[in-house]
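Q: Please design a sequence for this.
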């Protein structure tokens, strides 16, 4: 089995202006440095709102920080008359390494389908960034015991058209919607069940190298206090963190899960 570098990504959602963003990234960098965090061992990524990205870029470049950053969404279009949209080329130019696509809030409030998520993932990769492709079931689906087939259908749709080689470098985040921002964390076994099913599906479709390379994150009320148990699971390669990523100490604690 290939060894995969754990990835901790903090999705700030629509929080923090550009000045607050700089303060948080600085504090996170100091906290990690203080704890002698090895960024080669655990990758740390912040995902601020679009309006903060230029400031984060200036700080990261200026101070040669090892923290990486990404965007919360990207347009399916490359350029043109799409008011309010942000293209993958613009994000790449700002130094983004990652782009979250298909977050459940985008799927729910903006009616994003798997086809749209797939188009966004292709845009991100085409511009040299890694898409973090979000999938996961709502409460009704979970109660009906349909969470695995539901999530795998999203994986199939969202990863359509990628080669095995490309899939090996992608990130999928399994985020059960009932566990996002609710304090209701899935058990480590719940996370493992679906993360393993995602990897098995990728193995079936794209082969061993893709399945062994793909990083599968868990997301949903992850905190410093519960991350260790989740990270012990063999098919969980990191976490996509919402609320807890807005506090430097707490997010640093998640990054230092070992
Ligand atoms: C998220 O929004 O991706 C998320 C996992 O949020 P939280 O950690 O707050 O549940």
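A: Design:
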């Amino acid at each position: 089995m290939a060894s995969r570098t754990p990835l901790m990504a903090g999705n700030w959602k629509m929080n923090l202006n550009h000045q607050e963003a700089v303060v948080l990234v600085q504090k996170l960098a100091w906290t990690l440095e203080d704890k002698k965090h090895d960024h080669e061992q655990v990758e740390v990524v912040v995902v601020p709102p679009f309006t903060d990205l230029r400031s984060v870029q200036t700080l990261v470049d200026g101070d040669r920080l090892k923290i990486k950053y990404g965007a919360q969404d990207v347009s399916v279009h490359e350029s043109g008359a799409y008011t309010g949209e942000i293209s993958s080329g613009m994000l790449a130019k700002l130094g983004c390494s990652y782009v979250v696509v298909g977050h459940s809030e985008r799927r729910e409030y903006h009616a994003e389908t798997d086809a749209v998520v797939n188009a966004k993932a292709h845009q991100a990769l085409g511009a040299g960034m890694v898409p973090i492709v979000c999938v996961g079931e709502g409460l009704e689906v979970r109660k009906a015991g349909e969470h695995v087939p539901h999530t795998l259908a999203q994986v199939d749709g969202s990863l359509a058209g990628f080669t095995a080689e490309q899939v090996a470098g992608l990130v999928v985040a399994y985020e059960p919607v009932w566990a996002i921002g609710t304090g209701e964390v899935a058990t480590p076994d719940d996370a493992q069940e679906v993360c393993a099913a995602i990897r098995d599906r990728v193995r079936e479709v794209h082969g061993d190298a893709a399945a062994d390379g793909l990083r599968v994150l868990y997301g949903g009320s992850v905190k410093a206090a519960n991350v260790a148990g989740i990270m012990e699971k063999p098919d969980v390669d990191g976490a996509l963190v919402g609320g807890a990523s807005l506090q430097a100490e707490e997010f640093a604690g998640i990054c230092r899960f070992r």
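Q: Thanks. Anything notable?
A: The chain has one domain: 7-255. The pocket of phosphoenolpyruvate is lined by residues 11, 175, 180-181, 219-222, 240-244 (CB under 6 Å).
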